[in-house]
């Protein structure tokens, strides 16, 4: 059979022509790209491949940026908390920040744009009660209240791009200047942005795809005084702030933002926070501005006969591919980093583009490619988790980034990527455009809804966090499961009810977060709509602290639906006497050992009819109950694993009253899955592990047969095969 080629993007660099040609052949690459820190020479650009060229809109132009320092990008920052021991308090507001990255903005009047807050009372300190001492970068409060805490919210310029700073430190780029980000909202920067792009396009005729990395505003990434990450929020809009933006916002929205609306008590409106109306208005304001400016750049690119591609990372703030304005940009393609199945689906499900591309891991940087490390391990883990999601909704292309010369030094890695690229093309050519079999429709219910499609419980684009992994596993499990997944907000439910095609609602998260819902659960319409929906046959799954908001004697506001409640210490005198476990339950049939991650303490069953599936010394961990004609399931936490993927699948089918439908297409072995494509009468049995597996396979007509799969093997079958 002829080897499939194409749909793969290879990073290359100067003086690496022959090796590039070799790897193009082995990996079947049909596109070449540069990376941050590399360039393609003319010989490489003449190879038979599509040429991607990285393009920085608002950085990497220091000659211009130095001419207009007043147009550097800005952000609001908050000082450390400072305790007054007298009526005068001097606050060194730069303490803890990296002064190579930021500098205070003294061009705009601090009395107008800064804010001092008494954090003991929450009151704003009048501007005539403090002065700024520019020579020491400090602020003196001279009518302080002793033993109160104070913070200073100050406007600063960001004089070093965070991504270039990270790459600078990682690769020891001692000879490279610090790249200064500038704000395209400002007049000189806006004109430069357009003019330079036109000039650049004319000077780069070999470029086929302009890979915008990305556009204007970086996600919030601030470094500490040691040059380490201090605060990082992949969704943060903090670096889009400027005096010009604040003035335009006031004119458009009719009210003025406070610094506190941005610094948010030092939480900086993390995606885990329930957003204020002011912050939602600000996000919308930035998104519309970004979409308008992006559209103009895309039109310039199209006029030159080239394609526009957006990197879903770095300066992506305001683009929001699941937001209201993304379609207006006219973008041809989106590429993003694939850390796991959830991040793959975040990219592959993006609407309104011609194609999507995933940059797989590891990145070809020296922190991974060195003598004491085997990069195949990370590549294998990355591929197996991402492949599950590919089987549901494939990307159109895959690729890598970084220094190709580093990867070339590891022949086992080169051979493994050759295997990956071949397997990817086989999957794509078989199932692209084919809707996979779906047994259920599931909706993730939280504050954000659709705009955070496949993005819940992310902290820094897929990084592991102790407080998040027990919930992130939910999306990871769903990314490759045979269910349709939607993302709906509390406002969606209040205004429109639960969509008619949804079988199961999932609410997962810690109390008070945007994902659990916090104070949204005091809204009677929200509670009533969901209760009625479950009562008449809907399925509800709560994970962690679902519907949690303490009021009217309840902590879980849908405790009646869930059949469980959490002890807060107020009802210790009331006996919690329902503790007997149900030794056999549909949900737990395939599970050898439970893993609830961080789990949950002090959850207990409310009534005798609650089926307790797992109970430990910490309290109830897994249970189900009936509510009218509907069902609910409570799970204390769900880190990603093959076992937990199966547990969640069973929980969803049980909650939906569709237990027997689970076996329509099914594997008995939790390390294996079946992906079915009715339109083409094919299915694939997949081994998601690195060891040989044997499984029973249940097919559509109730028949089952046994199959043996080698490590990470896929076996494709036709419906009509005789066994």
Automatic annotation (TrEMBL):
Q: Which residues form the Lacto-N-biose phosphorylase-like N-terminal TIM barrel domain?
A: 6-438
Keywords of the record, alphabetical order, are: Glycosyltransferase, Transferase
Q: Which EC number(s) does UniProt give?
A: 2.4.1.211
How would you classify this enzyme at the top EC level? transferase
One Pfam family, short name: Lact_bio_phlase
Ranges for domain Lacto-N-biose phosphorylase C-terminal come to 665-716
- Which residues does the UniProt record annotate as the domain Lacto-N-biose phosphorylase central? 441-659
Molecular functions per Gene Ontology: 1,3-beta-galactosyl-N-acetylhexosamine phosphorylase activity; 1,4-alpha-oligoglucan phosphorylase activity
Q: What is this protein called?
A: 1,3-beta-galactosyl-N-acetylhexosamine phosphorylase
- The source organism is Virgibacillus salarius
Task: Print the organism lineage.
Answer: Bacteria, Bacillati, Bacillota, Bacilli, Bacillales
